[in-house]
Amino acid sequence: MRFRTGNYARAVADPPVTSPLPARVALRRTLTLRSSALRRLARDAELGWFVGLIAMSGVILGFSIAFPRSWPLGGYVVPLLLAMNVLSARRVVLLEVVVAACLIVTLTKIHLLGFRWVGAVVLVVVGIIVLWQAVYRSRLGVASGRGESMLVDLRDRLAFQGQLPALPRNWHAEAVMRSAGGASFAGDFIVAAKTDNGRRLEVVVVDVSGKGIDAGTRSLLLSGAFGGLLGALPRQDFLPAANQYLLRQDWREGFATAVHLAVDLASGEFEVRAAGHPPAVQFHAGSGRWSVYWTEGPVLGVVNAASYTVQRGQLLLGDVLLLYTDGVVETAQRDIRFGIDKLVGEAERLVRRGWDGAAERLVTSMRSESDDRAIFLLNRR
Asked: What is the distance between the alpha carbons of residues 59 and 57, in angstroms, rounded to a whole number?
């Protein structure tokens, strides 16, 4: 593996007269040492917590013996709860052995009343719960609470995929995503990129089967894959390639709907293709009318060698184009066509107020919180 960063990039551009091998070896050693240092730092931090919690257990034992009538047995809960969040499963077991030994010593040194026996039983139950939680987390292969930090990082990366690129001053775009039940992960996501040397904006709005946390991991995987495909293929090949990608995953719930938009930022001409997805909607500022672009194409991940039709149009000054998922317009009591009419009616109220913050207001006004929702709005000023 070659690393073309930092000093090595300069070594490649201007190699020494003797041989470039020492520079490569030196860089590899530096990267290896740096990685090893980070791993060692993580291990040392956990070891420090382990030693500190053992010391805390000893201090609690001393106070329990020194003040047998006033010091509560529940003090041993503190190191156990801290261990659940900062130690690996193996060290949690060792700490629980230490705490159990301290508890036994405490019980032999003090006279227990009835209510204090209840405290001892509660402490044992807490220890069992802490041990079960530590073993459960160990399946992820990371120690302690670092698994939660990984989930936070995954959530942030999914949100980062939905950030829109900087557009010319005469273009305004907004993207809003909401998860069912207010969860951090959602089955709906938006990926956008400028292609053709910044002359074109391509956006894909995707609705993965499932909702909330159940669909969040698949959304994360697909957002990365679709972000790589966006702009790397001709526009007409994006949805077929995305369809083949989902078929290769062979998921039980492996389907998704998507709408793909490509806009020429100079002329405003656009192409929109959909894979089993609700149609794009355009507001024509000149006439005050709305157009709905129905396209044909199966959902992604179901049919092999699928084909997708295209609708073409143009965004003139003041025009607005809306892309959205079915959670915005469809509910158990509302058909998708009535939902689109309701969305158009809500958007009509925003024409005079302007389109700044309109995507947020539309998501809020549709009030379909039982499903994931996503809206992309593009306005040519």
From this structure: 5
